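Weekly structure sync, notes
Attendees: PL (lead), two postdocs, one rotation student
Agenda item 3: pending single-chain targets
PL asked that the sequence for the first pending target be pasted directly into the notes so everyone works from the same version. It is reproduced below exactly as submitted, 206 residues in total.
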Amino acid sequence: MIAGCVFWGNDTKAAKKLKSMARKSKYFKFKTIDVGRKCRLYAASYGGQSDSSLVTNEGYGLITKMYPYIELVKKSNNNSELRLRFYGELHEFSVYNSTSLYCSKFKMRTSNRRLDLPMKHTYGKNSRDSSGYYYLGSMKGYATVSTSSDLQKSKLKKFTTMLGQGSLSIRLVSTDGAYQEFKVISEARKDWLKLVKQYQSLVKGF
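Predicted structure, written out during the meeting:
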């Protein structure tokens, strides 16, 4: 048993390793979501924003952030599952048109590989600012890359390989066509890849 996240057997070992990894690196964060049922290890978040000229010339701007995380959860049947997920959020500022953001997918691209990850929409808000001068939109969600009950070996392998490529860029796409794309810097790729490698090691015990 581990304080703050109560699991047993192999689950305890996995939870301890997640917590230990967070202690060893300032780029990772361990969090208990539901004591005895769910905990997570988050990698550092990275993202980008539109150039200021887009707001000046087109009347809108976008900001995004994303990161992978490992989730250990005890399901309703008391079986535990390890999950590798990729989280993202997109925010839009618009002077002229209302926003309608809703999670669609991540589009990962390198010089020789492509991977689309469908997103689960978990939060959305599109409204006019109280001043009445502009519109604001936000969406948040995640894509499941792999789980201990459904490894998705081919997808996991490609995801891992792409994180190791310097040409990696990721586009976060809304169902209305809005998107923000950024080239993933080396520091982010290394942090994220380290977390994915930890998942690959842990999932062997499930």
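Discussion points:
- The mean pLDDT is 92.
- Residues 186-203 form the longest helix (18 residues).
Action: rotation student to compare against the earlier draft before next sync.
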